Amino acid sequence: MSSTMINVMGKNEHQKVWNLLPWYVNHSLDAVEKDRVRNHVRTCIACRIELQQQQQLFEEMQQTDLLRQVSQAAFAQLRKRIERQSIIRPFTQHNQPSEASKFPSSQPLGFVKHTALAASLLLLAMPFMLHLPAEQTAVTAEYRTLATAPENTPAHNRVRIVFADQPDSKQIGAILHSVSGRIVQGPSENGIYEIQIGNRHTRPQEVDDAIAYLRNNTQVIFAELVQGLQPAGQDIR
Amino acid sequence: MSELPESKVRKSFNSNEQQVKERNLIAETAGGNGKAFEQLYQRYFDRLYQFIFHITRRHDYIEEIINDVMYVVWEKASTYDQTCRPSTWILGIAYFKALKSIEQSLIREDRSVEFNDELDYFPNPAAQWVSQLEISNWLEAGFDNLSPEQRAVVEMTYYQGLHYNEIAEIMQCPENTVKTRMFHARKILAKLLPELKGRS
User: Fold this and answer.
1) Would the CB atoms of A75 and B42 count as touching at under 8 Å?
2) Do B182 and A19 touch (CB under 8 A)?
3) d(CA B134, CA B59)
4) Which of A210, A233, B76, B77 has minimal Cβ neighbours within 10 Å of its Cβ?
5) What are this entry's molecular-function GO terms (chain A) (predicted)?
6) CATH classification of A158-225, choosing from 3.30.70, 3.40.600, 3.40.50, 2.100.10?
7) pLDDT tens over chain B, length 200 residues
8) SS3 content of chain A, % helix, strand, coil (to 5)
């Protein structure tokens, strides 16, 4: 074998080993590759120097654990996203019996909530169980069906109006009579009246018609349903 | 002649014990076990954070990308067929998510040049410590001179401790391409070595 061929082969071997050095220092090479590197580096100063530099680079890349605290906050965001997605598309492909058991951190809270709910129901049921009429009255006073208007919610037929040029009581009476209305509150310091159109059986359409009629009256400068004006329970000022 | 330098590996990401543990966590995640998924998430957060940062060179979207990656893991855990290491599967997802993020951030920058001055007044407080870490680490400056693909190879080799054939699998390219990318990356990083020597 000629010296030229040996040089070429040696150069090829040098290049191949040089390419493998990063993976030698990260300990991922298999046994054959490791031996190949070791054998070459024993006789190659260039690769030996490069190996030391690779070692320094490798150690520089080892990082700290500063990210741990960030990971917890970020995971909370991901969990929200998964839970939000599970509402839209239940986890039917996963063989999990219920949502509540997915994330164990929510289990103790769920137990407490269910226990508290059971205790509340028991307390509510006690007067009925003991046949105490007085207590029963107190309970039924708090009872409300879904069809019942929420507490403090203004009736659907309450309207606030403001008259122009302070008409006298006779004029006001005539205007309200034209829409089957009566004053239930007012006037306020700002001249606002709250009136009731008809009674509780009056249909919303009839109330709307009354409002439209009032607005066409030149002596009325403002007429609006109470329900859309302010939160429930607030008086006119 | 003295012995060859031994690597001081702070962490071993790829021990058999760890792989078994991670395979189990993925299997439990596929069954909808949120606790197992959280463990997997915490195990990979640091790896993914650094991995994605070194590819994208941005830290403002990293948590978002990590959560995108882990969301895929959660959704697709049942499709993991165990033919590759868990790290190969997860880092493979992260690699392409990171590349996609680079493309999207370039588009975003093109579209929001006029807002840059304004955004300077609202720095991300959570990212400050990362900046400090970055300044203190000369190597981070060297990464800026590498392409995303070169950075990915360097990152997966020096930090993740992966073999070049595993890197090729993650990047879905031939092994020689991995070696070539590393070759050019080393040439660029070699220019920084005098500074490294000065520090040590």
Assistant:
1) yes
2) yes
3) 10
4) A233
5) zinc ion binding
6) 3.30.70
7) 445 554 444 455 667 888 899 999 999 999 999 999 999 999 999 889 888 888 887 777 888 999 999 999 999 999 998 888 899 999 999 999 999 988 887 766 555 444 444 444 334 444 444 444 443 456 666 777 889 999 999 989 988 889 999 999 999 999 999 999 999 999 888 876 665 555 54
8) 55, 10, 35
Please give the interface size between A and B, counted as residue pairs whose CB atoms are below 8 Å apart.
131
Both tokens of A145, joined, read 């069906």
List the beta bridge partners of residue A161: A193, A223
Residue showing tokens 């003991």: A130
* Contact residues, chain B, for A65 at CB < 8 Å: 46
List alpha helices for A89-132, DSSP H: 107-130
Query: Are A57 and B196 inside 8 Å of each other by CB?
Result: yes
The full set of domain ranges for chain A reads 3-61, 158-225
Cα maximum dimension of chain A = 129
Report the distance separating Cα A47 and Cα B99, nearest Å.
33
Domains and CATH numbers, chain B: 16-109+125-199 (1.20.140.160)
Q: Given CB atoms, is B174 within the 8 Å cutoff of chain A?
A: no
Structure tokens, B52 = 């994605």
Contact A218, A151 (CB under 8 A): no
